[in-house]
Amino acid sequence: MSLLPVQQILDEPRLVEMGLVNYWGYNTLGYFCPEPRYAATASPRNEFREMVRRLHAAGLEVILDVVFNHTPEGDERGATLCWRGLDNVSWYRLPEDHRAHYENWSGCGNTVDIRHPRVLQMVMDSLRHWVQDFHVDGFRFDLAPVLGRGSPGFERDGPFFKAVAQDPVLQRVKLIAEPWDLGPGGYQVGGFPSGWLEWNDRFRDTARAFWLGGDCTRGELALRLAGSSDLFQARRRSPLESVNYIVSHDGFTLHDLVSYDLRHNEANGENNRDGHGHNLSWNCGFEGPTSDPTVLQRRGHLKRALLATLLLAQGTPMLAAGDEMGHTQGGNNNPYCQDNATTWIAWARADEALIDFTAYLLTLRRRLRPLDSRWYTGLPDARGRHDLAWLRRTGEPLTAEHWDNRMSRVLGAWIGVPSHGGAPLLLIVNGRDKPAAFLLPAGDWVAELDTTAVDGRSRWRRGKAATFEIAARCVVLLRDASGEDNGAAARPAAT
What we know:
This protein is α/β, with parallel strands linked by helices. The chain has helices at 13-17, 44-57, 83-91, 117-132, 159-166, 201-212, 218-225, 229-232, 254-257, 293-312, 352-368, 400-403; strands at residues 2-3, 7-9, 28-34, 63-66, 138-141, 174-177, 197-200, 242-244, 316-317, 389-391, 410-415, 425-430, 436-439, 445-450, 467-470, 474-480.
């Protein structure tokens, strides 16, 4: 369970003037204490510890989002609150040619200078404090490249990463990077040290483009489904270090992603100029709420297809709270200052069918583990069985020509040698707006998932059928019920 920042924060003056607050909490002032307004009692420290204890008892780990890239003091025109008054030159990155100004690689006016030993010490002390005193299980670092910025730029083996790796407390917790900042060379997806997990926006954008009509090839989707090997494998990283997501706190919710073409951020007081303008979203034919059954069905199918793409892919999935129940923010894709019904989860209006579907998907992931923690080779073993083969709907393997074809949206992933000893699996996706017939490999295929079914369940079994008719905008997962020991009979006919 990953929480947005819980450390003590300060609301920006501009928000206070408009009667708003920093709801997301990315403006940390006190790095060693919980934000008091989040507590229901007069003892936020004890309350936070009790929350962590109860979450642990329920089998949930607690990951904290932490902000060590900037402080609320802002740029050279901002208020003096703490570090600026103590040692401005040591705590903030200042341009060599104009020491009166700030390097603003955070987009918030200043950038904390991790190069200074006392700054690094403060960060390390804060992290250890939350692990040892509050018993959290790990951290997600906002704009994490800032923490690896030396004098020339981002350093994968920089002092902060070395300090964490040798620390007896921190080396055993989970470390997750938001792998980009606004500075030179700030996009570092795949560039962090081994053992770190990273938010993978390439997975997000590819999945959205494939399902919602953007520019995308089957090959790009296959790369994301199989752990983004182009980003992680060459650097000897694990597939699990790719944090796959469709939606985070920043941007449209899953429901809004298929309900709005445009952002609707007027309530933020910035004349609808804030937030991403390139969302790769699709309103399915009508902007915002509607009672049109055709539009509603299309949205339901796409939400389920996107969830299946996320939860069946190789890597570590991240599901934004509320997406499993149809949470909407009314098209606001940057509600960082909306502590009101825009962002609050409306439990009474939860989509129970979508909750059940998501729970079923998670059960399938745990039971079948369609794409696990190893890198696949695509090569046959001694019995001629491929560990992973990418197929066209004709049942033939994808060649380079088909891999980069931007016209087709039908793809099959034949997983012939699951490492856990299970039966071969066939994952089929159809991103087109019409059904497609997919030629099946030999095997006694049973459908474990059909995302066009409200609950995801299907009673389909192959019988004498040579093909599977996959519905439009659909993900299907088939299992070979004849068992693992099919030998050559259980591999794709064309290989």
